[in-house]
Design a protein that fits this description.
- The chain has 135 residues and is of the alpha+beta class.
- The protein has one domain.
- The protein has five helices and four strands; from the N terminus they run ααααβββαβ.
- Strands 1-4-2-3 form a four-stranded antiparallel β-sheet.
Length: 135
Amino acid sequence: MISRYENSQRILWNMNSACFFITLLSIAEEERARLKLSPVKIDLLDSARYSMNKKWIDSEYFVRNDVKILEWLTGKKVVKSELDKVGVLADNVYSLEKWEYNDDYHFRRRYFDVYKGSLTVEKGNLVSYYVYTFI
């Protein structure tokens, strides 16, 4: 019998560079809750494995296709835009912040961070907002 945890340490090894991926999962969970989909919670290990197999992320957790990840997790079409400013968003619209410091990037939600104490946020600059609209 093969456990779903087989090879999990290798899959999760580079989680220190997974802020964008984990932030996308948080957006997908909120949209799943809004749509009343079950289950609302998303399994990190299964999502990472599937996204790696689809080449939407690489083994370093660099996100190569954020829209496909969100569409797969919610079953909805997603339109992405990159903006300098955002205000109040509609219920089906979500945003994340893109920060930069010394050529490193960090991604976070406007109201919470998956990695508290980020040096990139502390010393860097807010570059833009990624805005995702679920249709």
